[in-house]
Specification:
CATH superfamily: NADH Oxidase
Shape: globular
Helix content: 40-55%
CATH class: Alpha Beta
Strand order of the largest sheet: 1-2-4-3
CATH architecture: 3-Layer(aba) Sandwich
Length: 243
């Protein structure tokens, strides 16, 4: 693959929250996982485990856990945001065509027992040990999304499964051993909506060379301005229905 093809791939990889219920071939799921297992990992420990959920009753149960997380945590915490970010406006939890229609959920778990394979200087430094473990799983997860894009599929990154309540109940639902931790869940299928143009920061504002002083980076006001604009963009994307 040349550079332009790679750039086109990452530009086409977009999170879509509306899916068609059409099934996807089992071979596609296998291909997504085959790419992911080649991701880089700290000291090649390959801590990942992939759980593919296709049974509707299990997907419905996972959605119940996810929605409970938003019913209890999200609406109580969001109003505490800084006043300059504006007033929180709740959105409907269940709208026709949300990601519950997707045919496949792939949950990425990390096996904490693999941490013993790290050099002692990292293993007994909690922050670095956890960072290496998490970064390894993040690499595999990104590879999953890129692989899905090459197959004409779309995907959504569902980080709500990391909530302690959801994490615990999800593992119990699926019979996951205690040594495994939820990293994140990828919802994958055929898109029911087209992505909006992505709001991007200007490249010249984020690239710096050699010595950099405070004046080379954004001011608090510039950061706050982008936060407001991109949150508005994300919220509009989430609320958008199927095409």
């Amino acid at each position: 693959m040349d550079y332009e093809s790679l750039l086109e791939l990452v530009k086409n990889r977009r999170s879509i929250r509306r899916f068609k219920p059409d099934p996807i071939p089992d071979e596609y799921v296998d291909k997504i996982i085959e790419v992911a297992r080649w991701a880089p990992s700290g000291f090649n420990q390959q801590p990942w485990e992939f759980v593919v959920v296709k049974k509707q009753e299990l997907k419905d149960s996972i959605m119940e856990l996810y929605n409970e997380y938003y019913r209890t945590h999200f609406p109580r915490m969001e109003p505490t945001r800084e006043p300059w970010q504006g007033v929180y406006r709740p959105r409907p939890l269940k709208v026709p065509g949300d990601f519950s229609d997707a045919p496949v959920f792939i949950i990425l778990f990390g096996d904490t027992r693999t941490k013993v394979g790290l050099p002692m200087i990292y293993r007994f430094d909690y922050l670095r040990c956890q960072s290496i473990f998490t970064s390894s799983l993040a690499s595999a997860f990104l590879y999953m999304h890129l692989a899905a894009t090459t197959l004409g599929l779309t995907s959504m990154w569902v980080s709500g499964v990391q909530d302690p309540l959801v994490h615990c109940l999800l593992k119990d639902l699926l019979g996951i051993p205690g040594e495994l931790e939820v990293y994140d869940m990828m919802v994958v299928g055929y898109p029911a909506s087209k992505p909006r143009p992505k709001l991007m920061r200007a490249k010249e504002k984020m690239v710096h060379y050699d010595y950099c002083g405070k004046e080379d980076f954004r001011t608090d006001g510039e950061v706050n301005d982008f936060v407001q604009r991109t949150r508005t963009w994300v919220t509009a994307t989430i609320r958008r229905g199927a095409d």
